[in-house]
Amino acid sequence: MKQTYLNQTVIFCIYMYKIVLGADGLIKLAKSGLLNKLPQLAKCHISKQVYTEAVERGKEKMYEDAYTIDALIHSGKIEVTSIKVNIIESSLSLGEISSLELYKKLKADAIISDDRRFLNLLNQEKCEYIIPADIIVVLAKNKKVAKEEAIKSLNKIRALIREDVYLSALKRLGGE
Amino acid sequence: MKTQAYPLRIPEGIVDLAKFRSMEEHVDQSTALRQLLHLGAEEYIINLIEKGRISIGKAAELLNLSVQGVYTLAEKHGIRIGSTLEQQTKSQQTAKKFLGN
Predict the structure, then answer these.
(1) Interface pTM (ipTM) of the complex?
(2) Which of A90, A114, A168 has its CB closest to that of B85?
(3) Nearest chain A CA: its distance from B59 CA (Å)
(4) What CATH code would you report for A2-131?
(5) Half-sphere exposure of A118 (CA within 13 A, CB side)
(6) Considering the entire predicted model, what is its pTM?
(7) Does residue A104 have a pLDDT over 80?
(8) Of A1, A67, A87, A99, which has the fewest Cβ atoms less than 10 A away?
């Protein structure tokens, strides 16, 4: 009885987390095939600018991941929020800047991105972030996906991430 | 993509290369020159992403591509873009803290 109560508390707490996804994190997780599992761990938010970059422009070029993301948005698993951008930074896109603004506005727990330049800014701003490869590890450790499926998903994005980052995530998944 | 006129002196070798490309690709010489310029810009931008000087989103904006298009371009150039191991270490700390990893 006590154990059940504890489990429910843990599940409730995990679900209440808020995550903001940048276009890069969003697309890489969609390509891995595990983006649909993420809402089981946290509430997922993207800015309107990220929607334009990842979905609208992606659909123009017929990228499958853009349709996957759009379907998750229409099913209510990812929320799109309009946000005004106040910062101007010549080395970042509106999508990245709006993600940072949204993170601050929502007081979110983390931003998901794998973009080196953007992550440098997040470090400077003392913002929490998680890279897509680690999200795959977390999903496996939280038993949202089987280890084998997580490894397959990681392999799907292998060409899009650095080899040392890939190997580190693979090792934590128990792969070779 | 918007264009604008820009006065430029070009080395003769590059002009000859543009002539060659115009024949190879069946385009006019100006188009061939623009294509060569664009190819150089692509490689330069991919290297900037790799070094963490500009973001993927910004690169997409500058090259008039989608974010997915930038990944394809990076693969074409054989360059893996993404977070560093140091950034991954920080990411792992956050993942543990928030997601019970």
Answers:
(1) 0.86
(2) A168
(3) 8
(4) 3.40.50.1010
(5) 32
(6) 0.88
(7) yes
(8) A1
Alpha-carbon gap, residue A42 to A16, rounded angstroms: 6
Helix, strand, coil share (%) of chain B residues, nearest 5: 70, 0, 30
Domains for chain B: give ranges and CATH numbers. Answer: 12-99 (1.10.10)
- Determine whether the interchain pair A41/B90 forms a contact, defined as Cβ–Cβ distance below 8 Å: no
Question: Cα–Cα distances in Å, from A120 out to A3, A108, A125, A130, A142?
Answer: 41, 18, 9, 13, 28
Contact B57 A53 (CB under 8 A): yes
Give the position of tokens 């993301």: A69
3-state SS of A23-59 is HHHHHHHHHHCCHHHHHHCCEEEEEHHHHHHHHHHHH
Domain ranges across chain A:
2-131
Cβ proximity of A90 and B52 under 8 Å: no
> Would you say how long chain B is, in residues?
101
